[in-house]
Amino acid sequence: MREVFHQSLEDVQSRLVEIAELVTIAMDKASTAFEKSNVALAEEVIEADIIIDEKAVALDELAIEILARQQPVARDLRIVVSALRMSASLERMGDIAEHVAQLVRMRFPERVVPHGLKATFTKMGELDVAAARTLTELLRSEDLALAEEIREIDDQIDALHVSVFEKVLSDSWDHEASATVDATLASRFHERFGDHAVSVAKKVVYLATGDWATHDQEIDTTGVADD
Amino acid sequence: MREVFHQSLEDVQSRLVEIAELVTIAMDKASTAFEKSNVALAEEVIEADIIIDEKAVALDELAIEILARQQPVARDLRIVVSALRMSASLERMGDIAEHVAQLVRMRFPERVVPHGLKATFTKMGELDVAAARTLTELLRSEDLALAEEIREIDDQIDALHVSVFEKVLSDSWDHEASATVDATLASRFHERFGDHAVSVAKKVVYLATGDWATHDQEIDTTGVADD
């Protein structure tokens, strides 16, 4: 029974890694589409999101099946419940990549954001992709040092998010309202993507350290801060 | 054992209702604070959010304890897992009410949005409160007709959300960028609050109808649409 459970957990882990990889690819493509106003690439991201959604649903079903058949307790139970939460966060990260792609499609053939912010959003996109890639590796290796890396990447994303608002609210900002709307939404999407990566990373860390109360508190605090 | 489980579920249900009530109060106050630029009321909402967070954490812990001690299967298991997801959505609704209040505090003593959009946001706030109040009643009574009411309220919120962007992007919109940023964020917060209410309502319905696959698909679809 124990062995069966162990195999089930490996299945859960490999599925989380697989979804994280798809999310990384989605944000990588969405960022490129955003930078180059590549509507074909944006369409790819939008069409592919359903795959991430379906894999998240399948993982949830597996987790529920494990709870029903193997009735884990204590740490094992926490692992399975956390898998349900992680799949929800990863699915959300996929949605956000799709939203970035939708902005590109909505404005095409115009660029989503004016040149003044192009470098900022290119960097934000790179950082989001780095966060997702590092999260994938954290889920695969359970090397907890990677969680700290993700937090540092997210700090850089947050700083850029603040800089976008400073720019948009500065006297030098003379663009039309649509550019302001797009910059506001795009910046928020990029920021939240990073926040979700941190949220998943925290779950991995707290599963390893077993500090459940802090674990849940941290998630809620993240929730308050992020959304 | 069955009786114990039944009592546990009643405890879970009453906690969900309690959190939904607090969320309703939070959005009611946040909307009033937003309309009147009442920073004291905004502070109340911001300070009170931690209570919602703590009650959501306590509910999650109770759900995990039920899974560990009573090891429910089949529909009972779905109910407990759904409670975990509902508490996450309700906690998020509380966060969104807090974000609306934070906008009020950030702009005070200025109004968050210009007069041209005041009526729209007042209506959006009323609809969000109506959605939360109806959701509270749905959780209490399990009268599934209320789920359809919530969906109709959300449709009205979505229509107003679209109208905000039409207004902001129209030639008649001559406000500074900060007003555009605030209107964009405030409208998105109000829209997502309604989406979360629909998401929780769907869980109640699918728990009653037992159509799990659709249940999960629906949640993911909502996710794609909302966030």
TrEMBL record, chains A, B:
Q: Which domain of life is it from?
A: Bacteria
The subunit field of the Swiss-Prot or TrEMBL record says: Homodimer.
This chain belongs to the protein called Phosphate-specific transport system accessory protein PhoU
**Main subcellular location of this protein, as a coarse class:** cytoplasm
Q: Where is the PhoU domain?
A: 17-104, 122-204
What is the residue range of the signal peptide feature? none
Question: Upper lineage ranks?
Answer: Bacteria, Bacillati, Actinomycetota, Actinomycetes, Micrococcales
Subcellular locations according to the entry = Cytoplasm
Q: Does the keyword Cytoplasm apply?
A: yes
Which organism was this protein described from? Answer: Microbacterium aquimaris
The protein's UniProt keywords, in alphabetical order, are: Cytoplasm, Phosphate transport, Transport
- Family indicated by similarity: Belongs to the PhoU family.
Q: What Pfam family is a match, any one? A: PhoU
What the protein does comes down to: Plays a role in the regulation of phosphate uptake.
Output the NCBIfam families linked to this UniProt entry. Answer: phoU_full (TIGR02135)
